[in-house]
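Hypothesis: this fold can be encoded by more than one sequence.
Test: take the structure tokens below, design a sequence, compare later.
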């Protein structure tokens, strides 16, 4: 299983989701079975570290984002990943606009896994520090739901 988290610039929400989900996979002994990455729709921050506020908020919860570097969604992501998870509706629309004609990889809003089928993970970039904690709360809830689905898929396989 290969999961790609997608946001606008890959410096706040999607690296946070990647870090949270990686930790959850480690805690459940599944890190060797599920590959995780993140990217952004746009090129603005390619090669840059996550926003310091995202790093600080994640560090308070024991998650280290310092090694992550932003990258942009690439055409081969539609072949390399089994699941593309968008942080908001605009990200989802951008994924669909870039989708190659032959691609069958599912793309959906990440918060569907937290029971919010139409809700977006808010972009904290232009807000205050509290927005990064809200993002973490939402991402942690969705990550637990995603892990449950992945484990259920594994149990259904012969």
């Amino acid at each position: 299983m290969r999961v790609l988290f997608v946001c606008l610039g890959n410096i706040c929400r999607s690296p946070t989701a990647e870090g949270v989900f990686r930790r959850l996979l480690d805690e459940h002994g599944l890190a060797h079975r599920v590959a995780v990455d993140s990217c952004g729709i746009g090129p603005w921050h390619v090669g840059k570290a996550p926003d310091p506020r995202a790093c600080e908020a994640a560090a308070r919860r024991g998650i280290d984002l310092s090694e992550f570097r932003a990258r942009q969604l690439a055409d081969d992501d539609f072949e390399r990943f089994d699941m593309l998870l968008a942080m908001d509706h605009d990200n989802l629309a951008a994924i669909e606009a870039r989708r190659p004609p032959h691609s069958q990889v599912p793309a959906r809003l990440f918060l569907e896994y937290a029971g919010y089928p139409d809700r977006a993970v808010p972009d904290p970039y232009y807000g205050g520090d509290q927005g990064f904690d809200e993002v973490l709360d939402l991402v942690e809830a969705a990550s637990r739901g995603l892990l449950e689905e992945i484990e259920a898929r594994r149990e259904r396989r012969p």
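The longest strand covers residues 2-7. The chain has one domain: 2-156.
Hypothesis status: open.
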